[in-house]
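Box 3.1 — From sequence to structure: Arginyl-tRNA synthetase
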Amino acid sequence: MVLDTTYTKKEHNNLINDVVGKPFSFLKSIKMKGIGSKRMIIDDASLNMKKYLNLVSDANLELRPTGIIIRINKGLNNFTWVMPHYQLVVYKTNGISIYAQGRFIHFKNNATFNENKHFFENMMNEKVKFESKYKFSQT
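Predicted structure (token representation):
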């Protein structure tokens, strides 16, 4: 789900915490060596996401216990895309693409992408931990 978080609303914070969990504690975030990404340049997006983007857009990602949050700025407006781990699909193709809820964003393969490799490793480790709690049958 994409929320307009330009102005802080208690309902939005409660909804985000329900979907992807409360933020990691300060000590846990230090142990993980950070839970946020550096600014990443958006190369492409699905049609239903383009209305939230400028011609040259960037985003910040935040790791939560049961999902991730992508924060996008468009002028003076802020948008937050919230996705739980069970909906999250990641592809590494000349950068990285994140798919969920019928939407996608592709990030450029540039210097900022290379600086965020540790963040993506943490993200995939948390996704594996989350999915290991549930037994999925493969038929």
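Summary of the box: The chain has one domain: 2-116.
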